[in-house]
Amino acid sequence: MESFTTPLLTGTSTGAILLIAALGLALTFGQMGVINMAHGEFLMAGAYTTYLTQQVVSSADVSVLLAIPVAFLVAGLLGLALEAGIIRWMYHRPLDTLLVTVGVGMVLQQLAKDLFGAQGDPVREPGWLQGNLTVLGYHWPYTRMFTIVLAVVALGGLAALLKRTRFGRQIRATVQNRDLAETMGISTRRVDRITFFVGSGLAGVGGVAVALASGTNPTLGTSYIIPAFLVVVAGGLGQLRGTVLAAWLVGVVTAFLTDWFSGSTAQVITFALVVVFLQVRPQGLFTVRTRGLA
Amino acid sequence: MSTSRTRLAASTAAALAAALVLSSCGGSKSDDGSAAAADSCVDTSGDTIKLGFLNSTSGAMAISEQTVRDSLLLAAKEINADGGILGKQIEPVEEDGASDPAVFAEKIGKLLTSDCVAAVFGGWTSASRKAMLPVVEGSNGLLFYPVQYEGLEASENIYYTGATTNQQIIPAMDFLASKGVKTLFLAGSDYVFPRTANKIIKQYAAELGIEIVGEEYVPLDSDDWSTQVAKIVKAKPDFVFNTINGSSNVGFIKAYYEQGLGPDTSPIISVSIAEEEAPAMGKDVTGQFAAWNYFQSVETPANEAFIEAFQAEYGADRPTSDPMEAAYTSLYLYKNIVEKAESFDVDDVNAASDGVSFDAPEGTVTIDGENHHIAKTGLIGRINAENQFDVVWSSEGPIEPDPFLEGYDWWDPSAE
Model pTM? Predict the structure, then answer.
């Protein structure tokens, strides 16, 4: 039983971090079609924000909670700057966007190295997250359960934004048919900008979860960006439930494979499985029917 | 059309390559008439001698390699104040390896053949050393490499002043055996050093009667250790042997403590956590162990002087570490060899190096002229509350270097 619960629970926690990283991409890539390779660095910015918040507010009990909105804001503003400064000029040139954002990612990494050093800085977890809960032989740390809570909250917030608010309707309208949305009086420029802000901000929240799990370092974004893109593509563009299911599956399958083989082998097999899956079902787990021209 | 274009490109490339070969031949010839490229262009006529310091001062390795650069500059300053090497003042030529093996190879070529330095000091990762090796051998230069590594190498043109495996890994196993350890779990990053180290550990463990109850690797840049740590919890080993490198250690240490492990249950012995890294783990690692050949806490008069001089130069909050000490020692060893040989010539230096020693901060070290490594004492430290290491075990005197483990009959390099 233990050999089943351990990978299941560790995999669910890992999948949760992946989900927060992928939720932002589901917006910027899934909805807007922008390939932003600097998304991982927004995650890194969120992690460093957690570290910096802890320097200002020394009580870890408070600072981690405080870090969540601050990280959202910092990463969101970085995203906004990227959108306004670079991406808006190349909405119909996806390859150029890809190359340019890879460059932006490198610049951000070097900036973090210069500001904080290459070594990485420790982030203390709050007192109320210390310890673990024994579930059928697995000592499940509270910090890793917290990432699941964070993922659920982020998912709930995003779903509510898209489904229940006026702005969410504007996003969906713009995605489905940009020209028609404009004729209805929606400022698609403004929608693009805010969507990008929210998507990037979510990466910042993911950064808080990463910082709690493994501290900060300038290159931490690189190990999440490719899996996050895979999750969004495998889940299917344009909706969220596919992303959720794909993130959870990638996390849990990797954990089981790690348990049976080794960490490196598990990554290779998981990626191979996703590639094979996309050969069979290129549109991903779920699809949306759209009349959109874009 | 496309074929002729390809042909054009190919012939252009060939012409360029030929031009490069010609110009490089011309360059070496113009130095001193018809001499072969292997002949040195080092100028020993003046009252200064040029030495190359090649460390990464940018990129991912900069944080570590900058500390080595600082120690080298300190040693050069001290030697100069004391009259220099053979009466000549050291003139450091500093280059940045940029954390990129290809840059290391290019820069060491520049240092040896165009700056004409007498010797180069530096390198950190095994990849950087492997990249420099053919260049330094090709131009018959000298490289002093200051970091513990996976052994299985001995170049005529390199001096290895960090530990080889029989001075760090094997003493660590002797220490575990002396503690009565019966079961051991191996955790490492997935690259050459941990794989080689664990191969040695597994064969020696069989000899010592220690059972290996698990062996796990994660990719070098991965931070997620929770599944593997759950295996440690399940295996309940007496000790965990940690060969993880770099920031991956943080994820490992966090998962280890969060799942309820600690120095009382399954203590960790590490080979890459030192004074600089211990405070960066985000957890209190008091009571865990590390195997090195130098700790800041080592009590020798030479170490006291080294720490005092280093902190006077760079600030009282700066810790000293094993590779820093090995780099500092390497420059003094070079001075002692040259003064014994009474020559800066590479062949004269190699002929004189055997048996040259230095009272280093770690204790007395002696060069083995055969394999160019140095005899060092193996130390085990236990982390205290100040993130310093209390020495709890040491080998009986300096251990002779044996990079190919030829003196260990249990070692079978071909076995899995």
Answer: 0.79
